[in-house]
Amino acid sequence: MIIQPTAVEAFLKSKTSEPPLPTIVPGYTLTVEKAGDVGNRTLWVVTVIMALSSLAFYGMAFRVPVQKRMFHILTAFITTFAFLSYFAMATGDGISKKLVEYHESNDVVGVPTKEGTLREVYWARYVDWSVTTPLLLLDLALIAGLSGANILVTLVADIIMILTGLFAAFGSSDGQKWGWYAFACIAFLVVFYQLGFNGRAAVAGKDNKTKAFVAAISGFTLLLWTIYPIVWGVADGSRIANVDSEIVAYAVLDVLAKPVFGFWLLFTHDSMSGTTPSVGGFWAEGFGKEGSIRVGDDDEGA
Predict the structure, then answer these.
(1) Cα gap 175→165, rounded to integer Å
(2) Buried-most residue among 78, 88, 105, 190 (CB within 10 A)?
(3) Which tens digits make up the pLDDT trace of 134-165?
(4) How far is CA 124 from CA 120, 129, 150, 173, 206, in A?
């Protein structure tokens, strides 16, 4: 899509020291890389999938005792936040345009020409990932039985991975963009190590069915997560893929990594009800009488 812009004055003033330009800018062409019908329809389809999956997960949660609902609630939260993110993107929110190319030159008669390219960046996607991926990792970590220290390292590395990915998406130069991308990949390797090695060691003492399940669902998740940075590299990074292709690729990955992951986790969890953890205490009953906070109640004999 090539348009003659009517509102690029602020952008052009930041590039030159010339006086304010008129509303119509001669010799300036702005190209906008944006979603088409395929991308927009895909966003709506995934919005519906996330909404229906969330309702299903909440329904499944109410079918089990509250002590065994933790994985159901975590998984339902994952698709709920994903639904909100996709609804925002489908309705035009959570999107910014980033300048990815800019050229100034003179034509054959010496008239200055300016060419710029903007590309849509769906920052709502990163907001989604910053919330949903820690919840998903918490699901996996709790099933595997990772220690608290390893869980903390995993979650912090995951958040660093998402934030540096966001910074890369808005990087103003190739060095900045690919530098942030490298940091994100390093953080991903930390997550991979925690799940792939420490997770396997943590689950080693459990029964064979649990070990096989944890190995399968963790491997499935890590495989999908390995594809995400590849998609970023050919889409936001090098711009080989257009915006529609980017949306479709992320949509397929998100559906597999969230609803499909969730149904697999919860159906298996429910079938292993005799061996899955039961969480009581504060999760099921609150503070209770012992340890509750009292207001205006003095100790006896005070």
Answers:
(1) 14
(2) 78
(3) 999 999 998 888 888 999 999 999 999 999 99
(4) 12, 9, 28, 22, 39
